[in-house]
Sequence to fold (920 residues):
Amino acid sequence: MNSINLSDNKPIGVIGAGNFGSAVANLLAKQRPVLLYARDGEVVKRINKTRDNRGHIIDKNVTAINDLAQIADACDVIFPIIPSSHFRSVIRKLSPHLHPYHILIHGTKGFDITLPKHSSIEEIDKLNRHQVKTMSEVIREESAVVRVGCLAGPNLSKELAAQHPSATVIASPFNEVIELGMKLLRNDYFQVYGNSDLTGVELAGVLKNVIAIASGALSGLGYGENARGLLISRGVVEMIYLGRALGGKPKAFLGVAGIGDLVTTCNSSLSRNFQVGHKLAQGKTLQDILAETDEVAEGINTVRIAKKCADYYQVKAPITNALYRVLFEKLTVQQALQYLMRYPLNVDIDFLDN
Amino acid sequence: MEIQEKKNKNKEYKPILEGIPDWPVYKLSQNRKEFVEEVAQKAFERVKELRTSTKQLIEELEATVYREQQRMKRNRWRVDPEDEPQFWSKVKEDLHSLANKPEEEQEQLANEILKRIVSRYADEIAGNFKPSRYRLTREVIKFWFARLLNGARVKKFGAFWRNQYTLRDKIHIVGKVKQLRRLARKGTVVMVPTHFSNLDSILIGWVIHSLGLPAFIYGAGLNLFNMKIFAYFMNSLGAYKVDRRKKNMPYLETLKLYSTLALQKGAHSLFFPGGTRSRSGMIEKQLKLGLLSSTVEAQRDAYMRAKPGEDVRKIFIVPVTLNYHFVLEAPDLIEEYLSSKGQDRYIPEQDRYGSWQLLQFMFKFFTKGSSISVSIGKGLDIMGNYVDDEGNSIDEHGRPIDTRDYFITNGQLSVDRQREDQYTRMLSQKIVSEYHRINRVFASHLVAFVAFTMWQKKHPKLDLFGLLRLPEEDLALPYEEFRDNCKRVRKQIYRMKIENKVNIASHLKGDIDEVIKLGLYNVGIFHLKRPLLRNRDGNIITRDLNVLYYYHNRLVGYELDKFIGQ
Fold:
């Protein structure tokens, strides 16, 4: 086993200067110099000059840049943290500069979809695994990089910035990627766990956003902890069913990146997905909500994709289905709730038997 | 009925290396003693690496002795050396005496015992290539094949001695032949064919020779060495011995290192990565990772030992599929498959084939139609990237890749076995998908697939075993319906061919009735009970549903059943 030499001062790359990207850059900056890529030249100037980005104070060990090629040349290890809708196009631009010695650990919780030419997601009833890809699969498809991992877990950017105790999971089929992630990220208030089921951990991180929206909706209706307890426990079951159909193992959903992240987001009014649900319950439409927010809530897209996957693989996913109808078919949150409470499914747990 | 191949590329190839003394396999056998010692030394180090403490090592050795003694008690073969029982009881004795020794002495003695064991294994595994025997074997085989072909086909007096037909007329080699020949000059080639029949090894041996390549080394089951005549040929063709009874760790590591070191020395190799013959008739989905991992390891080691700037000999993986209309062992194979899958739900019938049937088959094979085709796939590097004719790895976007980069962490080449296990797994997945791509669909595969799937769809409530229990007399498909389905499935196969997902034999094109006729004639052509035929009314019937299922399986995994109506 080779050991990773931490005295080595090669910079680490972070792509994406959003909330989470900035938080991860600051975490990494405790160990190594960091190159932080932002698409917008103005943002780059502002970060380097004022050390301020979206309310984060950026560590002085971080240098913002605007050049993907430079990141790939200077860094062996890169953390892409970009919204899923741009993920593929950014990796495509980065790809000519990547080599098999690069290690990529992404922190994006969303799906990538590839549709047949001239069709939009509205026109397609069902989606299968040839069309829906996780972010690590996008990296593998678009570049020569094979050593890929992901970062998932209860990581609300604001709490990370305030140095509250917190944990994350690094998932990768490669032990060296996990070990590297641990060495780079771990500190006194940040714990890092490893998991070899990359797909499972990615799916857990993505699918929990659906339940987070539902949780926001319940709170928007003014319901309390009983309702939330019900939602979270049934939510995990639904995530596991879907996750299994999409190629993850149930175990991944029971760890920090699964239940840990789920409970956090479902209880946090800070989370964007929670916010979306909250507003839905107040009677706002999807269009209103989209007009109000500047950052993407991955959950909306996830609901749409997860619902179409559930249909393709014939998985029971009542919460996802109900949310889909609220978001895209004008069902009210109240009606959706009634539908769920009458749903005829009353075996508590049946996925641990085999 | 003769099958016409449109493009006959079956020309004769000149050898890429002139004399046998230039062949890597020959050089290996010249230095057999040193090589065996090297294998033993490396295997010793590897076992020590895996069992670090003396206690662990002693436990491993005890387990090994126990297993070996069990094997000798239960399952001894003629080819097993006579001094075996003495050897192992001495090892056992020495292990016992360890118990009351001081720790330091224990370690030393355990090491000595381990060395003794792996040295014995290495010597047992090693092949013994002899050029004189190789030449003789080659001539004998060529001579008798020619006699068979000509004597059987040309019905004239004296035809027996003519050389009008050669095996080349029977066996079609298609695909990346030129590239393979180039790669064999540039680096070390590892050929990985699918495995359906016992004939495969003979066939591949002939293919390698007729493409002008030097002899490849390959692991042959020790059971084949039980017969003296076989042992003679195998030894002379560069085979090393694989004993599948021995599953103990020191043996498996020695075997893997034998392959790794031979690869490093540039010996072209042949693995059947499926392990054994496909029982179900499906193209292999799961490959054995043990031997495959030796390619990754050998390549990494070559990079590590190279001086800066020095050119490193690359290892190229070349997938190969063997396509048959007929697999002699099909009835036995599918029976084994069904009884293992269905446990007690399936009651196998008694129906065995002896050596008389084998001779009959050989004769029929050479007299009647039924050609065999061998598809050579594009060369891959050990990561499953395609390589160009110069042996450079190219990624999916057409950009060159340096294979060395896969073994680099933090700017340094490094050994990481867990990483290499993952790489091996990725390589095996790539090989499987290449198999599906280069697989050539024959008319016989098409008709078998369509007929069986139609029966399946006509009995939606029956599971596989229920279906197979239906009396064959009750099954008949109207020809028109069968014909329509064949047409639709063939159309989809064409589409997939354009998308580069499968390959087709040229006889699959043209008038569908002719193609069906050809398919029906050839599917399982020499079985006593024909899997598919037309009855007097023109309907499609079967005499052996199990065997039909076997031939149908060849096209499973392409999602073609969607194109078959009820």
The longest strand of chain A covers residues 147-152. Residues 1-7 of chain A have pLDDT under 50 and may be disordered.
